[in-house]
Amino acid sequence: KSIELPPPRENSSLATFSNAFTLAEVLITLGIIGVTAALTMPGLIAKYNEMVMVNKLKRTYSEIANAIDLRKAELGTSDYAEQFNPDLSAMEQLEGFTKYLNVIEKCSSASKGCGGTYKVMPKTRTNDGYGNVKITTVNSDRVILNDGTLIWFGKRSWKGNCETTYARYEKDENGNYTNLVDGKPVPEYYTAQHCAEIFFDINGPYKGRNQFGYDCYSFAVAPQKLNQHSGYGGLYDTMRTGKLEYEKYSAGKY
Which pLDDT value is given to residue 18? Predict the structure, then answer.
């Protein structure tokens, strides 16, 4: 016959067990959490910053493109050529569409304002042809918007239907000029249908890397549409993929 034992009383001598963690276990857990956070946080922060930059790019490009369309509507033209007529000065062309934006400062090419002599790095590390890392100097007409965006303008002295002449230079596999006369490269000329070129820095000359593909971008104005410049940031590609495409490097010898 089985004997049923009564439940133990509070002061029973039978052993009881606790569900609490020991101090060592808590410290080990906190250490694992800390290491995991240290490994993942930089990546999360980088992705967040990238998202912020891409969203700012989308908003800025949309505002500039809309301003250009508003200027076209104001002129009552069917294309963009008239507002970028080469008989107008660069500042007149720039003011034509930026009056639809929140401009807080205007600077001519001779002005020291709007960032002064402004330096911009190419999207990727590039040989300037003489064995140095290429850095672009901006001293053209430009404006700053109330959110800090800098827009600078490339006037084009086009003929006909926005046919613009450009120069390119022969280089070797290392990017050095190969066809030199008296130390200067000999150009080869070609044409492209550009009424104007618009450049912009989404966080201005005083913040960020000041580099194409990161915070600086450009597009060309053709008679009927706006075209991206892949070498100047590839803004359409960046907006489509949501990823910044640029190489981190510093100035100096190539």
Answer: 59
